[in-house]
Structure formats: C-alpha cells, structure tokens
Amino acid sequence: MRTRLQRFLTALLAAWLPLVAAAAPAGHWAHVNGHRLYYESHGGGRALLLLHGGGATPASSFGKQLAAFASGHRVIAPEQAGHGHSPDLPGPLSYTRMTEDTAALLRLLHVRHVDVVGFSDGGIVALMLAVRHPELVRRVVVSGANLAPDGLEDDELARTRDTLAALHRPERPVLLPSGAAAHGPSVAEKLVHLWLESPTRDQLNPALLAGIHTPVLVMAGERDLIKRDHTLEIVHALPAGRLYIVPDASHGTFAEQPERVNSVVLAFLDSP
Q1: What residues does 75 pair with on adjacent strands?
Q2: Could you tell me which CATH number the domain at 4-17+24-270 has?
C-alpha cells in the first residue's frame, strides 16, 4: 500500500505541471488576504466546496467525484497556497492560513451556508472552517482527517519523520521543481513539517469540535493511515457527527471506492 507521503508527493509533482500552461476554462483567480489563489468552478445548484489533500489538487483528490458532484451542485474547488496553480508563499504551510484563505474566497464569491467536502488535509481545513466560520458552513464531510500528528498510525508517523531527515541529505529521494519555493524550503519539506507539527490544539481539539452544531459525516478507509480510535474521537466530539468506514479502502477513499463514496456523500448532503 502506498503511504500518505508517497501518494501526496507524487500528486504534488503532477500538480505543479499545470503551472507551465494557462488556467483551465473552469479556472479563475481570486485575490485573498494579500495574495492570489486559484480556484475552479463547475456545475450549478447549491454550493459545494471541495478541499483537496496535502500536496494535491482538486483534480487529483476528487477526479472521480467532480462530474457526479457538479451534476447537481455548484462545485467550488480552490487550490491552496503552494499547491497546483496557486503560488507558494513565504513561511511554512499552515492549516490556519488555508482556512482563512478559504473563508475569504467564499466571502468574495458571496457564498454562504456551503456544503464542504474535505479529504485528508482538506478535511482538517473543513473542520477548522466549521469551527472558525460557522456562518459559512451548512454541512461537512471529511475523510482521513486528524486532530493532531499522533492521530497518524505509528508506522506512518515514523516514515514521515524519516522522510524529513532524508530531505536534509544531499541525495534527496524526491526531486521537485526548483520554483516551488523561491525563498525557503521546498513545498515537500513544508508539507512534512506541516504533518509532523500540526494540527495543534489551538487549531483543533475535541472541545472545539463540540461547538460545531452542523451535521458532519466523518469517513475513513477500512485501512486508513489515521488511527481508528482517533477517527472515533472526532465523531464522538461532534454534536451531530456521523461515521462511515469505507470498505476495502485505505487513506485514498475517494479514489479507491468512488461509487460507494459518491453515493454516501450525496445522500448525506441532499438529505433534509
């Protein structure tokens, strides 16, 4: 099974390729919090925000969902700073910055009461958005989210630490475009630091989740990289939390079991 790190670093390489071309027809640029942010818009209907995984893009995280979701919803899919088309910014990657950029984009688009679907890092941002900006959120679906680094399975956390050490050796195991970060570490290194150091307790914790009163569907793969007990802790902390363990799936639930996941997510979002 490919690890979270392998999947996301591979996706990161692919995500940077569009930088050499113009934005896709569905793509747009927004100015939020003093910088440019790329986002795509598909379909029509009630707004549905898609938040991609770390080192990925909406296309790589939700490639098997976009058409199904856009058939009945207005899909809004941003690429966070340092991902895809969106330029990297000075300093570390931050879930707080991602959350505030996402909130600013929704306000710029005059979107309120949006349904939010977040995968992995995007799931963390989705929960933080519901905590910090409840007026913007109607319902939330997350898959593979964690409240702290120790929510990762022990072997995955150890591999992530090993990768950070390897990135400081001259013979780096992963080569990324040199323009990924003009004045600092590569986006890959920023991602590893992000996963090892956050979310922090001031960003997410059970007490903060207890303040989310909107319905939240918490998903995880049957063989996810997030500890099952940790996923259950998230569900139990949510006043209106629901759980769905995706059969025959690892961390990549959306890609591995799209028919099951699409059906469950749309039924949850479209229920009264």
Answers
A1: 42, 48
A2: 3.40.50.1820
